Amino acid sequence: MNPDTKTKLDGRLKRAEGQLAGIRRMLEDDKECVDVLLQIAAVRGALGKIGQILLGSHVETCVSDAMRRGDKDEQRQQVDELMDVFGRFGGMSS
Predict the structure, then answer these.
(1) Structural domain containing residue 22
(2) Torsion from C-alpha of 4, 94, 91, 60, nearest 10 degrees
(3) What confidence score (pLDDT) does residue 92 get?
(4) Domain of 39: which CATH number?
C-alpha cells in the first residue's frame, strides 16, 4: 500500500474512532435514541468509505500485480478472494 493511502486511511480511522467515542458518551449521557442512531449511521458510512479506499488499493496493487505476472493459479486466487471481499463488503451497507 502506498504511503498516501495509508495516511488517508489513518486519518479516516481516527475520525471514526472519535465518532465511536462520541456514541459511547451519548449513551452514557442518555441522549435521544434518534441522535445516537444518526451517529451510528455516520460511523457506518465512514467505515464504508475506509473499506472502499482499501479495496481500491488492493485492486490497484495485489490484484493487478497477479494479473501482470500471468500465473493462472495466483490470478484465480486473487479473483476468488476479491469476489469474497465484494460479497462481504456489500453487506456492510445494509
Answers:
(1) 3-89
(2) -20
(3) 52
(4) 1.20.58.1000
Residue indicated by cell numbers 442512531: 37
Of the candidates 49, 35, 34, 40, the one whose C-alpha atom is nearest the C-alpha of residue 19 is 40
Q: How far apart are CA 13 and CA 31, in angstroms?
A: 24
Cα torsion angle, 67, 68, 69, 72, sign: positive
Q: Which residues of the chain have pLDDT under 70?
A: 90-94
Give me the number of domains the chain comprises: 1
CA distance 48 to 36: 18
pLDDT at 91: 56
- The chain-wide mean pLDDT, for the chain, equals 89
C-alpha closest to that of 21 among 53, 55, 46, 48: 46
CA dihedral (42, 23, 29, 27) in degrees, to 10, reads 100
Distance CA 86, CA 83 (A): 5
